[in-house]
Amino acid sequence: MFSERLRALRKERKISQGALAAQLGISQQAVGKWETGRSTPDPGTLRKIADLFGVSADGLLGRDDAHSAPVWPGAEVLVPVLGTVKAGYDAYAFEEDYGSEPANVKNPRDYFYLIVRGDSMEPRISSGDLALVHSQPDVESGDLAVVLVDGEEGTLKKVLKKEGAVILQPFNPAYQTQVFIGGEIDRLTIVGKVVETKTKW
Known about the structure:
Elements: H1 2-12, H2 17-24, H3 28-35, H4 43-53, H5 57-61, E1 77-86, E2 91-92, E3 100-103, E4 111-117, E5 130-135, E6 144-149, E7 153-162, E8 165-169, E9 178-181, E10 188-198
Keywords: DNA-binding, Transcription, Transcription regulation
GO molecular function, one term: DNA binding
Domain HTH cro/C1-type: 6-60
């Protein structure tokens, strides 16, 4: 389990939570949540932790390295389900480790699943669906993406870009569109592009 592996590595290297947080550029509270299993780092931070301790990201997650080897088209590999994203405006993007799910991708290290919560993306995407996300810092206008608002709130929305503005658009007309203008755009962090969704029965 990630929380146990991180705590063991940190104590083995005699690094305090505060020192680790400083090296990663995050709060000590965030490290505490990781070690108690209340949250999981995003893929980029996970790679930083792995590099810092000289281990693989797969090792930190307790997954076999074979699951992260490049694959050929048509082959399936296991991709981690890192947490929950709510298809609304008021939930954390990464909360828990939900195991893994198969995906047909070439570079599994660059992908993860998030579980959709809420109905703001109905009728195309429903609560409980799995969103396959490619980790990347930016997306094209019109893409579906997972976005962090103010570093905390995770939302799955269609991203529209217009001159001096970024718009987060839900599919469900019952929900309002969010518009970020000028300096407000700095409040947004693109976690990745949604490349596929699937329904779990």
